[in-house]
Amino acid sequence: FYVFGENLANTEPDINHVEHELQSAEFLVCQDIFPTETTRFAHVILPAAAWSENDGTFSSSERRVSRVRTASVPPGDAKPNWWIFKEIAKRFGHEWTSNSAQEIWDNEISVLAPSMAGIKYARLENDGLQWPCPTADHPGTPTLHKGGKFTRGLGMFKAIDYIPPAEVPDKEYPMVLSTGRRLYHYHTRTQTGRCEGINDLLGEETADISAADAEAKGIVDGEMISVKSRRGEVVVKARVTHQVPEGLVWMAFHFREACANWLTNPVYDPVTQTAEYKACAVRIDKLK
């Protein structure tokens, strides 16, 4: 099992089950820039260079390909990801000819991807280029579908029947837990958790609940409470807020001890295979 740049032990639903599976792996390799909750289970850890320690490209969600230049030398044994993959391939008997990020882009990616055929390193100065950019003299495409020319013709809308969550509130677990991200931290804090300034802005997780639910349970803002599902329990600080409707608990997954994924339900959308992070049944209680 090869885990590349992911912290599965915090990001996946039902952490207790995830950790059991990681512990059961016959052979686990983790490739990452920092130790994580997942690397604890690895038989081999491959230290990777971070984005600021790499030379290469970055493709944004607006289809813009920009250069990334090395700002600092990778520490210790850390290597660029492409180098690690190339060395692994070599040990499997494959000789990959490209020997730099530029050679990979110019000789492989832009050759194999028609929409990027005209994007070469020599053109990636200033603001980069936006694909589609099919030829070397093409200026890039800042806006798609101009003049009503859509890739597939008319847009396709597909009606979806409502399907209730796999787990709905009941007498034992009468509230819905929904999860997401908070402003200051990124995912499981593998990077942002090492930044004192960001931790000063948000240093712990909270369970956000409505004033009505807090009053019904005798909970005051800022006190530690229990949030429990059929999969686990966390002790976390209550945040009483008007932003959350009655019957809902809202939490994030940034902090290990009070990570929402100790509670979430490992069921998946049949098409996208996305976990049902947005709804599972929980209960909240004052600590005894």
Describe the structure in your own words.
The strands form four sheets. A six-stranded mixed sheet has the order 8-10-9-14-7-11. A three-stranded parallel sheet has the order 1-2-3, with no helix packed on it. Strands 4-5-6 form a three-stranded antiparallel sheet, covered by helices on one side. The chain folds into two domains: about 1-150, Rossmann fold (3-Layer(aba) Sandwich), CATH 3.40.50; about 175-285, Barwin-like endoglucanases (Beta Barrel), CATH 2.40.40.20. The chain has helices at about 10, 15-25, 80-90, 100-110, 195-200, 210-215, and strands spanning about 1-5, 30, 45, 55-60, 65-70, 130, 175-180, 205-210, 225-230, 235-240, 250, 265-270, 275, 280-285. The protein is built from six helices and 14 strands. The radius of gyration is 23 Å and the shape is globular. By secondary structure, the protein is an alpha/beta fold.
